[in-house]
Amino acid sequence: MAEDIKSLIAKINREGIATAESKARAIEEEARIKAGEILANARAEAERIIDGAKIQFQKDAEREKALLAQAGRDMLLVLKGQLNTMLDKVINIEIRKTLDSEELFKILSDLIQNICKQQDAAVVVSLSKEDLEKLEGGFLTKLKEQTKKKIVLCPAEDIRAGFTISFDAGKSQFDFSDKALTEYISLYLKPKLKAILQS
Question: Would you list the DSSP string of 17-48?
């Protein structure tokens, strides 16, 4: 009987060990499968994150490139604007230097004497208050005597140098003011400046 019990205990032990080993193998297999799934998911997530980061990096790089290009264009536009403004100032300064009282007298004298032969209306000349005061005395008297015309000098606050002149008592006028001459000369010089900047 003791032999039977020993044999039974040995059998139970063998079966228990076999069952435990089988369960352990099943648990191990299930853990291996789950670990494989977790690893595959982790790899897929890592690839998704890396792909997303690459796309975002590319977008950021393109945006920065576009911003740099825009900043470069803006800077060039500002520079061109400043150069054009500087050019206008230089032209204006040179016009003011050139159109002093003596030069104004010569120009106006030539204009009035040559054009007034065909016109009977009063000649109206608008110029800066300073130039008007310099020319009003001797110039006006001298020119009236030479042309036998009615000549009216008018102060103009918006003219700092140069003048406007009308041969039909102010109905129409020719503009030789510093502003008009600056615009005219700038129209000629700005394309040349643009060509220099683009080369």
Answer: HHHHHHHHHHHHHHHHHHHHHHHHHHHHHHHH
Residue 146 carries which side chain, given as an amino acid letter?
Answer: Q
Whole-number Cα distances in Å, 165 to 104, 141, 172:
12, 17, 8
Q: Are strands 162-166 and 151-155 parallel, antiparallel or unpaired?
A: unpaired
Looking at this protein, which amino acid is placed at residue 70? Q
Write the CA distances from 2 to 11, 19, 128, integer angstroms: 14, 25, 140
pLDDT of 43 higher than 70: yes
User: Which among 164, 153, 107 has a CA at the least distance from the CA of 130?
Assistant: 153
DSSP assignment of 78-119 equals: HHHHHHHHHHHHHHHHHHHHHS-HHHHHHHHHHHHHHHGGG-
134-171 pLDDT, tens digit per residue, is 777 777 777 777 777 777 888 888 888 888 888 876 67
| Intra-chain end-to-end CA distance of the chain, in Å | 115
Q: Do residues 156 and 124 lie in contact, with contact meaning Cβ atoms separated by under 8 Å?
A: no
Rounded to two decimals, the pTM is 0.54
Pick from 17-21, 32-36, 76-80, 124-128: least confident: 17-21
DSSP-derived pairing of the beta strands 123-127 and 151-155: parallel
